[in-house]
């Protein structure tokens, strides 16, 4: 990628993820095409962006052309995550597993022990916000016996 940047084939824009929608809106990052993955439409014609609502929603708002892969494996998520089929220029039905990134644990035993100790600080019924990576995964794995929110319990059961 470094060579492509030197050759002028790509641009590198240092920005926080939260700044990307404003860069789209102000046309600092012009979008000709948004390639997105969506759930199948509901009976009213709305598709969900599923697990990819971060900058995807602003991308579809400002792109000149929207091409959507309709993947039956994409979960329907609630909130500001829907696009109507009439807003999509091309629908491409294609089923495949949802891309997941599994963190690499360098020292699994230390990570597991830290997760266990942190989980002992969490009271039953607590509400948690937790990030990504091997340590949050270890904490969540150690919380299986806690009475935490049902959504977290269901997520743990899916793992």
From TrEMBL:
Single annotated GO MF: acetate CoA-transferase activity
Pfam family, one: AcetylCoA_hydro
Domain Acetyl-CoA hydrolase/transferase N-terminal, first and last residues per copy: 2-103
Lineage top rank: taxon: Bacteria
One annotated GO biological process: acetate metabolic process
Signal sequence bounds: none
Record-given protein name: Acetyl-CoA hydrolase/transferase N-terminal domain-containing protein
Organism: Candidatus Magnetoglobus multicellularis str. Araruama
């Amino acid at each position: 990628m470094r060579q492509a940047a030197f050759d002028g084939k790509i641009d590198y824009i240092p920005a926080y993820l939260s700044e990307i929608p404003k860069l789209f809106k102000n046309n600092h990052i012009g979008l000709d095409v948004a390639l997105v993955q969506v759930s199948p439409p509901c009976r009213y014609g709305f598709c969900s962006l599923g697990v990819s609502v971060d900058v995807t929603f602003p991308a579809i708002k400002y792109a000149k052309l929207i091409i959507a892969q309709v993947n039956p494996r994409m979960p329907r998520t609630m909130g500001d995550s829907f696009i109507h089929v009439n807003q999509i220029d091309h629908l491409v039905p294609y089923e495949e597993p949802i891309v997941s990134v599994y963190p690499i644990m360098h020292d699994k035993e230390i990570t597991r022990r830290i997760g266990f100790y942190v989980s002992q600080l969490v009271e039953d019924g607590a509400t948690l916000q937790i990030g990504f990576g091997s340590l949050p995964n270890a904490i969540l794995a150690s919380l299986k016996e806690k009475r935490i929110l049902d959504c977290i319990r269901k997520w743990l059961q899916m793992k």
